[in-house]
Backbone:
């Protein structure tokens, strides 16, 4: 099944090239150049993973991550950054980012992380479904 | 005696901030080049498997790389000019060039705030001053003005000659004067004989800089 990915980055050419490469690799890719567009995309679609730039013009990546985690707690977020410092990465991981990569990123490593994100999401969905079934079995007096 | 003010931690911090911003921008340039080159490689791998290459897509990726090389070259040229601003304590400086350089070095901060930063009417003015300190003073003024502005605004900076020095005007069309005082950079302003005045009627802030002490 094709991985559904949302790419969020304010570098238009980066978005275009990376989304095309991911599409070539069989992924279903949506893009957003601003945090505002990302919020719209997030409410419009269901994604296996979000690849998020740490520095956006209308909202910094950490705040964006908080926003995503608030509305979609199980969302798998991979942060991309041009900053060569660890502090932001550590903070992002503490806030629930799945992973952290430095730009320029290796496409194969990024693809691998997206596949892991999809697998992780499937496990979460399965557990939630199982819990729902168990709850129904407990409450229904068959 | 000529006074310099940036033999201090503040000066070093400013140099660090600009270096960090520039290196971040170069990382973004490399990221685009990396993906565009990778895309060309993907096209060749697809061609190996018998899929026809589309010249337009190849051309677009190559153009992107060329554009990013130009962008990177401009960033590096500006960084080089900034680095050389520390060569001499005092020299005669072309202020139009100094302003253009500072605008270029500060544009990323403006972009992050979604504010357009641009040079307006500039008279040809030269001034005997400390190049590094002047860059820091201008940058501090612009950042202080940006902090008082909103996303979607435009900050226009002009330049004219005044008695004994130069005046940089900061205005945001259709808005109040963007820079109210030199509070956030007053020690540097004082050391450089610089002052901020505000004309609310025209909505213009003025940063007046005098020639370095001891210069003719």
Residues:
């Amino acid at each position: 099944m094709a991985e559904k990915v949302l790419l969020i980055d304010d570098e238009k050419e980066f978005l275009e090239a990376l989304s095309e490469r991911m599409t070539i690799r069989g992924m279903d890719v949506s893009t957003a150049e601003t945090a505002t567009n990302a919020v719209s995309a997030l409410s419009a679609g269901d994604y296996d993973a979000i690849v998020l730039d740490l520095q956006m013009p209308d909202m910094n990546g950490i705040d964006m991550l908080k926003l995503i985690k608030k509305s979609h707690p199980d969302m798998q977020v991979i942060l991309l950054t041009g900053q060569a410092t660890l502090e932001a990465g550590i903070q992002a991981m503490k806030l629930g980012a799945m992973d952290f990569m430095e730009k320029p990123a290796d496409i194969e490593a990024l693809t691998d992380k997206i596949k892991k994100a999809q697998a992780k999401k499937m496990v979460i969905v399965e557990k939630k479904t199982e819990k729902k079934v168990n709850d129904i079995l407990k409450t229904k007096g068959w | 005696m000529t006074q310099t003010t940036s033999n201090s931690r503040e000066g070093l911090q400013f140099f660090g901030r600009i270096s960090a911003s520039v290196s971040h921008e170069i990382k973004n340039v490399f990221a685009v080049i990396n993906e565009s080159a990778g895309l060309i490689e993907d096209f060749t791998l697809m061609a190996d498997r018998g899929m026809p290459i589309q010249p337009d897509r190849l051309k677009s990726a190559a153009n992107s790389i060329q554009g990013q090389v130009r962008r990177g070259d401009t960033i590096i040229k500006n960084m080089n000019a900034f680095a050389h601003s520390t060569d001499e304590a005092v020299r005669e400086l072309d202020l139009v060039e100094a302003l253009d350089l500072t605008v270029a070095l500060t544009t990323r901060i403006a972009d992050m705030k979604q504010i357009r930063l641009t040079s307006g009417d500039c008279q040809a003015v030269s001034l005997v001053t400390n190049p590094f300190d002047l860059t820091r003073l201008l940058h501090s003024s612009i950042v202080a003005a940006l902090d008082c502005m909103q996303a979607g605004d435009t900050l226009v900076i002009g330049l004219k000659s005044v008695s004994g020095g130069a005046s940089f005007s900061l205005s945001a069309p259709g808005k109040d004067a963007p820079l109210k005082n030199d509070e956030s950079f007053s020690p540097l302003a004082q050391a450089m004989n610089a002052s901020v005045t505000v004309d609310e009627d025209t909505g213009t802030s003025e940063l007046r800089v005098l020639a370095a002490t001891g210069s003719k």
Observations:
- The first strand of chain A starts at residue 4 and ends at 8.
